[in-house]
Amino acid sequence: MRTLRPVPASKVLKPGLTYVLVEALDAEGNLVPLAMDKINLTVKGEGSIAGVGNGNPQSFEPFQADYVNLFYGKAMVVIQSGFSKGKINLEATAKGLEMASANIEVC
After folding, report:
1. At 86, phi and psi to the nearest 5?
2. Residue 33 phi/psi, 5° resolution?
3. pTM for the full model?
4. What letter does residue 55 receive in the DSSP assignment?
5. pLDDT digits over 42-92, tens only?
6. In degrees rounded to 5, what are phi and psi of residue 66?
7. Which residues in 12-42 are b (16+ Cβ under 10 Å) and which e?
8. In terms of residue numbers, what domain contains 95?
């Protein structure tokens, strides 16, 4: 079964932005380079989605959305934290892929 893996650039964040790489992986943990799945994103806690992207120069997707299509197995989510301390949880889901999440601490 394929799965998603969100990888935050930082696990601890001061108020501001952080980048989260979302990748599609196969059952052995290898990148699936031809994956183009639509990824639905949910942020809970002390943050919100500031932007999304996938590097596809032919894409007309919005940069501010709660979804992003993978491009060659990868996409980027930009998370904006508030000024309150707490946790941010990013969940990534897609049809046919196992859900994954990443936690970021705001200090």
Report:
1. 155, -160
2. -70, -20
3. 0.92
4. -
5. 999 999 999 999 999 999 999 999 999 999 999 999 999 988 899 999 999
6. -100, 25
7. ebeeeebebebbbbeeeeeebeebebebebe
8. 3-101
